[in-house]
Amino acid sequence: MVSYMGAVLYGFVGIVVAVMALLVAFQEKLVYVPVLPGLTKSYQVTPARLRLFYEDVWLRSSDGVRLHAWFIKVLPESRGPTVLFFQENAGNIAHRLEMVRIMIQRLQCNVFMLSYRGYGESDGYPSQHGITKDAQAALDHLSQRTDIDTSRIVVFGRSLGGAVGALLTKNNPDKVNALILENTFTSIMDLAGVLLPFLKWFIGGTGSKAPKLLNFLVRSPWSTIDIVGQIKQPILFLSGLQDEMVPPFHMQMLYDKAAAHNRECVFVDFPNGMHMDTWLVGGDHYWRTIQQFLEKHVPEIKEHESSHDAKILRGGDFM
């Protein structure tokens, strides 16, 4: 009996050690997928192919990593809202161009598409610590531009990009005016047990009943559930109810956490939306939802209104 229990114990310890080794060695490869199978790291298409007005932007993160981005404008002199777009984990920004093209047409907005470190033409290797710096570099760049209305910057993140965008929005209440989250997970710890079921016995997020024995090994926790309740800006939640990667209840949990502290939260679901195609199957309803959100929270300031405000600031109405 003793030898049997000893064998069980040794077996359990062996499994734990194997899982630890897996997490230490391969977790970045599990979380970040810069290159889709069968494709190269380089861009397969550029905005020029879609006849979009754009510029290549090169940035330096605060730790010196060279980053690439595309800044696509609806018109050369557009002062419309600017969307800072953060992509999902797999592939690069070129794979999101068709969606962005429609976004620009439907919303009449500018879109800044950042390649995370290790993705596309950006240097470096992806990690939560590094990508957080990349996102900040992109926002700082936009905030310093003189050819856009910097009071109308909106962060849009899908899946992993939602985790990136939520953290950036929380950290920059003076620079980000609103946030859009689509099919985003509560945390990597919660998602790990969904994608790799055996991990749920070792890793767990805030609401998990798992032992959480190996949480300390997770280098990219992306715990959005712990961030979203601290965000003061308006948030739009877009949830595809057929999401095959991130269970839709993750989005509902994020909304519930945010709405408990923030009255400017809106949750909209799309019954046929999957992880990557909610924007496509959502059709007109999807784009009208975003348009209404932007019109409410980053409205266009008419020229006569801005002139009137300027006169008030100068004391013009009292002369």
The portion of residues forming beta strands comes to 15-25%
End-to-end distance: 97 Å
Poorly predicted parts: 310-319
Largest sheet: 8 strands, mixed
How many individual helices? 9
Determine the mean pLDDT. 87
Structural class: alpha/beta
Number of strands: 8
Q: Can you give the helix content as a percent range? A: 25-40%
Structural Rg: 22 Å
Spatially, the strands of the biggest sheet line up as 1-2-4-3-5-6-7-8
- What's the SSE pattern? HEEEHEHEHEHEHEHHH
**Rough shape?**
globular
Pfam family, one: Peptidase_S9
Transmembrane segments: 7-26
GO molecular function, one term: palmitoyl-(protein) hydrolase activity
Organism: Salix purpurea
In short:
With 319 residues, this protein is of the alpha/beta class. 37% of the residues lie in helices and 15% in strands. It starts with a helix and ends in a 6-residue tail after the last helix.
Q: Would you write up a description of this structure?
A:
The structure is a single chain. Mean pLDDT is 87; it is low at 310-319. Helix 6 (249-259) links the parallel strand 7 and strand 8. An 8-stranded mixed beta sheet has the order 1-2-4-3-5-6-7-8, sandwiched between helices. The chain has helices at 2-31, 97-107, 128-144, 160-171, 188-195, 249-259, 278-281, 283-297, 303-313, and strands spanning 53-60, 66-73, 82-86, 110-114, 153-158, 178-182, 235-240, 265-270. The longest helix has 30 residues, at 2-31. The radius of gyration is 22 Å and the shape is globular. By secondary structure, the protein is an alpha/beta fold. The chain is built from 9 helices and 8 strands. The protein is 37% helix and 15% strand. One of its GO terms (cellular component) is membrane. Keywords: Membrane, Transmembrane, Transmembrane helix. The chain crosses the membrane at residues 7-26. Residues 132-297 form the Peptidase S9 prolyl oligopeptidase catalytic domain. GO terms for molecular function: palmitoyl-(protein) hydrolase activity; serine-type peptidase activity.
